[in-house]
Every structure is written in C-alpha cells, then in structure tokens.
Design a protein that fits this description.
Largest sheet: 5 strands, antiparallel
InterPro entries: Cdc20/Fizzy, WD40/YVTN_repeat-like_dom_sf, WD40_repeat_CS, WD40_repeat_dom_sf, WD40_rpt
Oligomer: single chain
Radius of gyration: 21 Å
Structural class: mainly beta
GO biological process, one term: positive regulation of anaphase-promoting complex-dependent catabolic process
Keywords: Cell cycle, Cell division, Mitosis, Repeat, WD repeat
Number of strands: 30
Distance between the termini: 27 Å
Number of domains: 1
Strand order of the largest sheet: 14-15-16-18-17
Helix content: under 10%
Shape: globular
Protein name: WD40 repeat-like protein
GO molecular function, one term: anaphase-promoting complex binding
C-alpha cells in the first residue's frame, strides 16, 4: 500500500543530541522555543544554555563545536535560521533582547550585526531574511548589504498583524510569503506588492480571511503542485487543527462541495508544533506537543486518558489527509522541529528532556528501472 520510501516503512529513531534552552526562553512555544536550524552544508545549529553550537550531520555520533557565546547583555538565544542552498554556511541568530547576527559557519565569524526590538520569527528567501516581531510587524532585509545602518534603512516593513508573529513560510516561487500570529490570523503577501496582503481565505463579512481559533504555530507550502498552504494551530485547550488553503484557485479552503475523502480541515487532540512536506512523496508530517486528556467515565477515580497524539510524530497522505503512521517519540512536549535539507531526516526539540531527537523519516526515492527495448520485446 505504501511506497518503499514512505514514512510508514522508514520512520525510526537514529540518536539523541544534548540540548538546552535558556530559562528565559519559553520552552512551551514553538519555533521560538526551539531555536535550531539545519544548514545546506549539513550542519545542525542549536543552543546549549547561553552558547551556540554546530554539528556536522554527516556523522551523527560526532562532537558538536561551539560557534559563539550569547552574553548576558544580549539576553537569551531565541531564534536560529539557516539560509538556503545559495548560502549553505550562513546562519542567522536572534536573541531575546533583539540582537540580530549573521554568522559564517566556515569561518566561525559574524558577518553583520544589528538590533531589532522583539524578533519573534524569521526565515530566509534567497538573500532576503524576513523577520516578524512581537508587535506584528514584518521586515525584509537584504543580507547582501554589509553596513548595519543601511541594512535597517533599506528594509521593507509592513504592519497588518495585531499580535506577535509566530511563524513564517516562503513559497517556492520566491514571491509569496505567509505569516501567522498568536491571534490565529494568517496573512499571505506578494513581495512585488508588499504593502497590502492578498485577499484570500474564507468569506467573512464580505472580506476574505484566513483565521484559526488557536495561535498559528506551523505553516508549510506544498512543494509539488499548486499553491496549497497548510497551517496548524495550538489552542488553549491543548487541541490543534490543520487546515488546507488553496491560494491559487478558490481563494480559501477548498470548496465545501469537495469530496469528503479530501478534507480541508483536520481537528486533532494535541497541539501542532510543526509541519513538514516531504520533497519526494505525497506525505505531510506534523509534530505535536501537549494533548487534551479524555475523562474516563467510572465509578472509581481514574486519571484521564492521555491524548494518543501528544508528543508524537504523525504522517498524513496529502491532499487526502489519510493517516500513514503515528509514533510517540518523547515523554515530554515536542517544542518544534527542523527537517534536513534533503528531506530524509528530522530533528525534534524536546527541551524538558534536554534532548534533540534525530529520526529517519523519509527514504530516498528510487526511480523505476527502465527496461531495455530487448527486455520489453522478449517473449515471456
């Protein structure tokens, strides 16, 4: 039923890496609570207290090396983001006091530093670093600019969110970026017309809107076709919802007349902390933190049953959203995760266990062997 490189066959634990976040970092938050990145030079970048380390993932048993130390005046490490394949050794760091730095993993030196109040999410798009802040502002920095003053002056700034930006995702077209905030609102922007977000989503009071009940904690664009944006939230009652938005066709979640076997919403009993598409197979992975316990009717006192999805990896077929596999991977909350650049492995941040957990998730795609003309014509 499932292909050889599906997570159904591949998903397994590889090893663990020692990890810790500063006490000042909210370990229950996603992304900001799991400052980790995976570079295109195959290095994992992460924090241990007030120090930043990097580790070659070509040898998962190898020793991590220190990149830098975050001083007390800078606050605590809050965000880590690695650049794309055109800058395989570049990593961006942000601290709780708003210190922003770009580092070169090859030279182990910072290339530029500047200050920004309240950075809360960031992501690269080529040489552009997009940063969201606690007040809902979005800035696009051209990292080719080497003068900090010019970098800040030339940055494009937009303000439409009314709360802290929690997560960002660039589409592969390089022009479209989605931003989600703590109030459950998602906005989609075309950087060629950056001042006003696109009018997409469900029709609410004559305007289109992309809205969740809980804070947006994960965004991912489908890499294979169309402009499908998948969003995940973390509600206060420890539930989570995954929604599918077709940005290109009908400006919202797909029509209610869509066959029921292809849902546009999946309600789950655990908070969603990250979403990742496989680049090789039509599968979507979600990671989950705390789950909503279920009360058990009984004449005697019985503890509530824990959510089946709490602290787990769940893999879905996309766009059918059929269940592929669920694997409990931690005793404590998964704060976030990062997928390897080749899409084969995932690293899960579990701060309460002081561990980064490395898992194989998708195998290598093997193209069917082409038969020769002689073989195809042979008598059987």
């Amino acid at each position: 039923m499932f292909k050889e490189h599906s997570a159904f066959h591949v998903l397994k634990s590889v090893n663990n890496i020692d990890y810790s976040v500063s006490p000042a970092t909210d370990a229950t938050a996603t992304t900001a609570g799991s400052p980790i990145g995976w570079s295109h030079s195959n290095a994992l970048v992460f924090g241990r207290g007030n120090r930043v380390y990097y580790k070659s993932m070509a040898d998962t048993e190898g020793v991590a090396q220190q990149l830098c130390k975050i001083t007390d005046s800078m606050g605590s490490l809050s965000l880590v983001q690695c650049a794309g394949e055109n800058q395989p050794s570049t990593v961006a760091l942000a601290t709780s006091n708003g210190h922003m730095q770009l580092w070169d993993l090859t030279t182990k030196r910072p290339t530029i530093q500047w200050k920004l109040k309240g950075p809360s999410a960031m992501i690269f798009n080529g040489t552009t670093l997009t940063v969201g802040d606690e007040k809902g502002a979005l800035r696009h920095y051209d990292t080719r600019v080497t003068d900090p003053a010019k970098l800040k002056d030339q940055a494009t700034k937009v303000t439409r969110h009314q709360g802290r930006i929690t997560t960002l995702a660039w589409h592969r077209d390089k022009f479209t970026v989605a931003s989600g905030d703590q109030n459950g609102l998602i906005l989609v922007w075309d950087v060629r017309k950056p001042r006003v977000p696109l009018e997409v989503g469900e029709l609410v009071q004559r305007r289109r809107k992309m809205q969740h009940a809980g804070a947006i904690t994960a965004l991912a664009w489908c890499p294979w076709y169309g402009k499908y944006l998948v969003s995940g939230d973390s509600a206060a009652d420890k539930t989570g919802t995954i929604r599918i938005w077709d940005i290109a066709n009908d400006h919202g979640p797909e029509s209610s007349s869509r066959p029921p076997e292809r849902p546009n919403k999946l309600e789950l009993d655990a908070q969603i902390t990250s979403l990742h598409f496989s680049p090789h197979i039509n599968e979507l992975l979600s990671t989950h933190g705390p789950g909503k316990p279920t009360e058990v009717p009984s004449l005697i006192r019985v503890d509530p049953l824990q959510s089946r999805m709490a602290n787990s990896i769940v893999v879905h077929q996309f766009p059918l959203m059929r269940h592929v596999t669920t694997m409990s991977v931690a005793r404590k909350n998964i704060a976030g995760s990062v997928l390897s650049p080749n899409g084969h492995r995932i690293v899960l941040a579990v701060p309460e266990e002081a561990q980064l957990k490395v898992w194989d998730v998708w195998g290598k795609f093997k193209a069917p062997k082409q038969k020769s003309l002689f073989e195809s014509c042979a008598i059987r």
